[in-house]
Amino acid sequence: MEQVLNLIGEYLGILFLLLCLGLIIFYAIRGRNRPARSLREIAAFTRFRREVGLAVEAGKRLHISLGRGNINDLQGGSAFIGLTILDRCARAASNSDRPPVATSGDGTVTILSQDTLQSTYRSLAAEQRYDPTSARLTGLTPLAYAAGAIPAIHDEQVSASILAGHFGSEIALLTEAGERSHCLTVAGTDSIPAQAVLYAAADEPLLGEELYAGGAYLGANPVHEASLQMQDILRWVLVAAILLGAILRLVGALP
Amino acid sequence: MRKILPIANAIIAVGAGVLVLLGYFLPGIFGSIQSVLIQWAIILAAFALLLGVINLVLVHWKKVSTKQPGNIYSVVLLLSLVLTVIVVSLSGPTGFWSLWIFNTFQVPVEISLLAVLAIVLVYAGARLISRRPKWYTVLFIATALIVLLGSAPLFLLGEFTPLSALRAWLSQVPAMAGARGLLLGVALGTIATGLRILMGLERPYGG
Questions:
Q1: Residues ≥6 apart with Cβ < 8 Å to B90
Q2: CB within 8 Å of A43: residues ≥ 6 apart
Q3: ipTM score here?
Q4: Which CA distances in Å does B49 have to A70, A88, A110, A174, B56?
Q5: A94-136 tens-digit pLDDT
Q6: How far apart are CA A115 and CA A143, in angstroms?
Q7: pTM, whole model, 2 decimals?
Q8: Residue B54 Cα distances to A168, B19, B62, B82, angstroms
Q9: A225 near B CB under 8 A
Q10: Which residues of A touch B25 (CB under 8 A)?
């Protein structure tokens, strides 16, 4: 029995990933033949979608900040959501005179954001609209990054700014810049201290896993909805496991 | 070619991602491949940084050449960049003049920004009451004040033990529980994002 438990413990990680993968595939296949599931309202995404439409009509620009996370480590996960949001914004603003501008604090993420913009315009048969300077590296230290991104919000007629990536408390400087420029700031990050700052400083903060729902809420791909369903199920599984662990500990069954 | 290239990109990216992932779970079989791929990624990231700096120069050169408002700051940035590259090339990354530039310009400017950040955070806290006048906003601000007051000795009073104890309880029990809940959500979101990329359904690499 102990050997079996050890074996499970050794491969628990890969088993968990396979479970996640299985659930995503299951819900993606099931979702093909069913009407789209209605998602609970997240005010931040509702306001942002409206603001994207208004920005296109008013000839204003959208700013997408991808943070300073390096994709070679865990912090890069949230930047990928930022890239999905950048793709959606570029598509929505493809008729606008002013294409969206993306800022980041890591060289790799900057190249990926340029690539995202280029492939989005290519898929819309509008590659001539692509400008490599629309995706920028603004600084490599946290404060240098924030200081470099502030002029993009202030000077480029930005009507809405979405901050999606890895940030620290320097994110308050970006939300403040948005406040001063009277533009909507929707912000989400994977960092807990930065989420506390966002709660106080952003117009519409995205807390916890809300940022990762961005693709589903902005209509990126049906698989985003399938991943949301996977996350919902596993969240309840984790809650049950935590409660069970607490009860077992309370009755002395666990050391 | 236009169709083949994105498919080739996707195959390379997904293949490399799967091999690196398997390296964590089956280090005996995939460990060596994983470390080679990670080394390649680090080298590529260094080149990406160089391209990022070139991008920075292009953005600010465009601002200067098109005489956009505030282009004087771009001139200062470009001059500083060129001077720093020259000095660091001659003096070495840990040479006297390189460290002098870092300690004389970079450190004071960043410390000044930190001071601005502190003011911005206080201002944001004060503005929060008018922005979201709800009971949980009051709770948020009251908790922040208790933690702040319990973190250092008070003026004329010294250390106020009940406040310090309350601060310790707040940060170790409810705040820790909340943070772990948020982290679990973030972890699940990160796994979902990683899996979508490994499945090739999300291609942020021009696929």
A1: B97
A2: A204
A3: 0.90
A4: 11, 26, 9, 23, 10
A5: 888 888 999 999 999 999 999 999 989 988 888 888 888 999 9
A6: 25
A7: 0.90
A8: 25, 32, 12, 12
A9: no
A10: 11, 13-14
